[in-house]
Structure formats: structure tokens, C-alpha cells
Amino acid sequence: MEHNVILISGSPRAEGNTELVLKACAEVLAAAGLKPEILSLRGKNIGSCLACDKCCINGRCIIDDGSGEIFDKIAQAKGLIVGAPVYYGTARGDMMCLLQRLGMVSARNGRFLDGMVGGPIAVARRGGHTASIQEMLMFCFICGMIVPGANYWNMVFGREKGECLQDEEGMATARLFAANVAKVIHALHG
Known about the structure:
By secondary structure, this protein is an alpha/beta fold. It has helices spanning 17-31, 54-58, 67-75, 93-107, 129-142, 168-189, and strands at residues 4-9, 35-40, 79-86, 117-124, 155-157. Helix 5 links the parallel strand 4 (117-124) and strand 5. Helix 1 (17-31) crosses helix 6 (168-189) and helix 4 (93-107) packs parallel to helix 5 (129-142). The protein is globular.
């Protein structure tokens, strides 16, 4: 049985640091026998939740910004890793808008995130990592996700494209996190 893991890049930059970190995680997941897929928010205009409760009625978010397709893929997956660049002290707004709406859709449609394995990774030049991780972890926990640890917080340093690859400790932590996500998925689902 193939187990999908969705990795969401919140970076607007192609081949930026966040995407590179997620590609390293995807390599670890694939080597563990899982099927990773990286989805990007690049080029999308992700809007905020309208609190309209239409997702209770029709099972889908009514905002037509590409999120519905992302939510469908996540609902079929066993794992979810979200990577957010930190430009101004916290995770990018579009990532948090997506996560908040995803949480609403899940909560109103069978809690499909409950028991899903994964968690956040924050990528920044200097600071804001821990605030971003905490913000994204709150989403994971309220949705009932299982968040494995690593040997440090899931944060990687880098500003210019590719600079994250110089943060050996951060990249090793991200890879270990991905390996632990794979271990838990295999333990739960074979």
C-alpha cells in the first residue's frame, strides 16, 4: 500500500530555501518507501477564512483559490509537512490562512487530519523561527495531528537562495524529522 505524504511550501520563490528544505525531506520520505508530493503556494492568492460555515454544508471551502485541490490531496494522505518562510517574525500569512481554512474544513468533514503524522518547519534568515513553529504547531495540535520530534526544533537558517544548504545542523534536523514522520506512518499503517 502506498502512503502519501504532502509537503506544502509556503514560499513564493521557486527553488527558494523553504522548497529546498522540503525537497530534502521528500528524499528521506521516498527512501523510506513513502510517496511524497511537494505542493507550492507560489502564484496562489490564498485568502482568509470567511467563517461562513459553508464547509459544513457542502464539505468544501467556498473560496476558489486553489486550496480545494490541496485539501483534497491532504485528506487522502497519511502525512503532512508544512514549510514556511519567515519574513517578518512569523510564518507567512498565506500559509497561516491555508492552515486555518484546512483546519476548519477538516473539523467539519470527519476530522480527516486527526491522527495524520507531520508538522512544521520554519526557514528564516535570523529570527522568528520559534514563533512560527509554535503558531503552526497550534494548528497541528488542535487538528489532532501526531507530531514526531527530531533532535532540535525544525528550523533552518538561510536568506539567499540555497543558503539553507550551508546550515548543516538545520538540514540534518529537517531530515531527521522527515525520517521520524516516516517511522510513525509505518508504525501506524504498515
